[in-house]
Design goal:
Length: about 180
């Protein structure tokens, strides 16, 4: 999903999950896509939400999309920016700033996903835990050949049940806890 830089395809499961989610919480605007991996038959789930506003760059207007998902047995938080970020170094990491609700913003380095339009959080579990119960996630980044931009996501509805669904599909969780 986020790695290829395109939103998940709508499916009957997605529509059902949205209808079910909407009836539980009118403030929850997360889309849900659940599927099974064609490679190893593992379950996958992806929650996504569009940014509150589009971002203007030299290449046009783009609405970023935030993903919190479990793909190929790994938890992932990624943002499809819809536009490439500025080139920083050859290591494909990009400096960003993250702010959740009214907390102090902090700097982080996210890496490129499957294309130059996607940034992936290096520590998705930590960020997901901070997102639980939060209202707004802001990510400041530098689009290619443009001024700094802030993608603001209304993340109301990202709760412990969504986090638990992702964490349950994390095949690597037990190995990390044994270290």
């Amino acid at each position: 999903h986020a790695y290829i830089g395109t939103p998940p395809n709508p499916s009957p499961q997605t529509e059902h999950a949205q209808a079910h989610s909407d009836s539980e919480s009118p403030m929850d605007n997360w889309d849900v896509d659940s599927s099974r991996s064609a490679m190893d038959e593992s379950d996958e789930v992806a929650y996504s939400v569009d940014a509150a506003e589009s971002i203007e760059t030299w290449a046009g207007s783009h609405v970023p999309k935030l993903y919190a998902e479990a793909m190929d047995g790994k938890p992932v938080v990624a943002i499809d920016l819809g536009t490439p970020t500025s080139v920083e170094m050859a290591d494909h990491y990009h400096s960003i700033r993250v702010r959740i609700d009214d907390e102090k913003a902090y700097g982080d380095r996210w890496f490129e996903g499957g294309d130059q339009n996607v940034l992936v959080c290096p520590n998705p579990i930590r960020l997901m835990k901070k997102m639980i119960g939060a209202r707004v996630l802001r990510v400041e980044f530098s689009p290619f050949n443009s001024n700094m931009a802030i993608a603001e996501f209304h993340i109301v509805g990202f709760d412990s049940s969504k986090f638990a669904a992702i964490e349950a599909l994390d095949r690597y969780r037990l190995r990390r806890h044994k270290r």
